[in-house]
Amino acid sequence: MRVLAAMSGGVDSSVAAARMVDAGHEVVGVHLALSRQPGTLRTGSRGCCSKEDAGDARRVADVLGIPFYVWDFADQFAEDVIDDFVASYERGETPNPCVRCNEKIKFSALAAKALALGFDAVATGHYARLSDGRLRRAVDVDKDQSYVLGVLTAQQLRHAAFPIGDTPKPAIREEAARRGLAVADKPDSHDICFIPSGDTQAFLGARIGVRRGAVVDDATGAVLAEHDGVHGFTIGQRKGLGIAGPGPDGLPRYVTAIDAESQTVRVGAKEDLEVRSLTGIRPVFTSGVAPTGPVECEVQVRAHGGVVPAVAEVVGDELRVSLRVPLRGVAPGQTLVLYRPDPAGDEVVASATISRPESC
């Protein structure tokens, strides 16, 4: 099988490529240049896809004895991931750019180019597993990335490979060291890759500008403060609200709603954050077939969040999810991922972008 190994320059994708070579596949390594400033260097564990990362990936490819290329996807990444991220915050939403990158870049644009060039599959260093074409959680639950892969279609999964999903992260580092790969101890990247400073508000503010509005008490309607734009807030946020102190009951206040049209941020008690149902748009079913009628499932709404039991049903072009246990702080723009509630509880069933979290 001809395999294109997406090599970020980190330890996970390096071991994934090595394992595909060991399996006897014809492997070609490729590093995605996603920054319009290719000279940008990584700062510790912040950022990725930098000049340093490309060099690390090339050195690993040399050790493995495989061809290596750098492909420029910077313009498409800027449009499909960065611009989408900014626009989502402008609408008062809370997006996950890693989900969008997997959906639009790694398993769409990259995979399409790979297939056009005659490759059979794209291998990545994601912590997830494929079994009979079904997407499952990784063995290492703490590193599991099935959530951010839940947007992949059945067609995309047919041409994907996740070689390290059956191995805990410490063992991956040990394997990299045994193979003589210099990235064995390289820090994992954290935060949002295109915001290496880690200051998301500054990044958004520079692109959106000042759009003043009011912070309003949800119970009384009183204006508590002014702000420079709803992009500085997310549902469930407690700190940085600009208000004088806790509410009349002496308890902290949280962001409970965001109205981008009026630039209004509403705050209330923690209990006001409880959500009992979700409506998702643009649903994707990893089997390729939508279920008929209600299905018991478990739902996850954050990359590292827990799961709660639920009942999901397709209604028109939407996915409606009734939660058996309420969640708190769910925002429009987040991705909901459904898992099959079997004893293992690790198979991804579907995903959708949350448009309406509701308390009833």
TrEMBL record:
Residue ranges annotated for the tRNA-specific 2-thiouridylase MnmA-like central domain, each copy included: 202-268
Subcellular location: Cytoplasm
Region feature (Interaction with tRNA): 143-145
Keyword field: ATP-binding, Cytoplasm, Disulfide bond, Nucleotide-binding, RNA-binding, Transferase, tRNA processing, tRNA-binding
GO biological process terms, semicolon-separated: tRNA wobble position uridine thiolation
Gene Ontology CC annotation, any one: cytoplasm
Family: Belongs to the MnmA/TRMU family.
Site, as annotated: Interaction with tRNA: 126, 334
Catalytic residues identified in the record: 101 (nucleophile), 193 (cysteine persulfide intermediate)
Molecular function as annotated in GO: ATP binding; tRNA binding; tRNA-uridine 2-sulfurtransferase activity
Role played: Catalyzes the 2-thiolation of uridine at the wobble position (U34) of tRNA, leading to the formation of s(2)U34.
The enzyme's E.C. designation: 2.8.1.13
UniProt: ATP binding residues: 6-13, 32, 125
Protein's name according to its UniProt entry: tRNA-specific 2-thiouridylase MnmA
Domain of life the protein comes from: Bacteria
Cross-referenced InterPro entries: MnmA-like, MnmA-like_C, MnmA-like_central, MnmA-like_central_sf, Rossmann-like_a/b/a_fold
Keyword Disulfide bond: yes
Pfam families documented for this protein: tRNA_Me_trans, tRNA_Me_trans_C, tRNA_Me_trans_M
Catalytic activity: S-sulfanyl-L-cysteinyl-[protein] + uridine(34) in tRNA + AH2 + ATP = 2-thiouridine(34) in tRNA + L-cysteinyl-[protein] + A + AMP + diphosphate + H(+)
Primary location: cytoplasm
